[in-house]
Amino acid sequence: MKIVILGAPGAGKGTQAANLSVKLKIPHISTGDIFRSNIKAGTPLGKTVKQIIDNGGLVPDEITIEIVKGRLSQEDCRDGFILDGFPRTIPQAEGLELILDQMGAKLDYVLNIVVTDAAIIRRLSGRRICPDCNTGYHIDHDPPMEEGICDNCGARLIQREDDSEDTIISRLNTYHDQTEPLIGFYEERGLLANVTGQYRIEDTTNEVYKVMGIKE
Ligand code: AMP
To answer: Hey, which of 26, 117, 120, 205 would disulfide with 80, CB 3.0 to 4.6 Å?
Structure first.
């Protein structure tokens, strides 16, 4: 199964992708995670993209497409994959079509998780993550047992630098300008399925399963 998950930042793409990855036994590929791990490791790629990401902009298409191309050529992607946060622009979507053509593959589903801007702002500003094991929390909806401490590994939780209020607004603007046009792009290709991401995580998961004919 080859799946793309679309949606604004904070719509819940990562959560749904992680769940589907376990359910379908196919890799979850998040370009945001790839960039963040490069930043953390201080690689040349990390150094190139840090400022862009901290400001809420987009990493240039050529760089992003190359990374995804390399990742999709790995053995574990042969039977399927879930792309989370890629494509984010029309040129990236065209790049993905080319990569898939070369692999003799096609997308099966593009799931678009729909959430209002107001909910996104509330959600992202309360988000916290563990810098060591990557577990996500929310100060209101999913707090850790001890405030500021990861339940899983005991590390001190942090706020992603790009989850600050100003950066959230610029990420949302970037989403509306550059990523939202992908909805029409995939609608034209008959691949798009909208699911609501406004309410509980389980509600979205159930909708996703329904669209894809997956039994719980
Ligand atoms: P995410 O974790 O998906 O919210 O991504 C965090 C940040 O990484 C984004 O705000 C962008 O700066 C960058 N990024 C992630 N995926 C892409 C992409 N497909 N194209 C360009 N930039 C990206």
So the answer is: 26
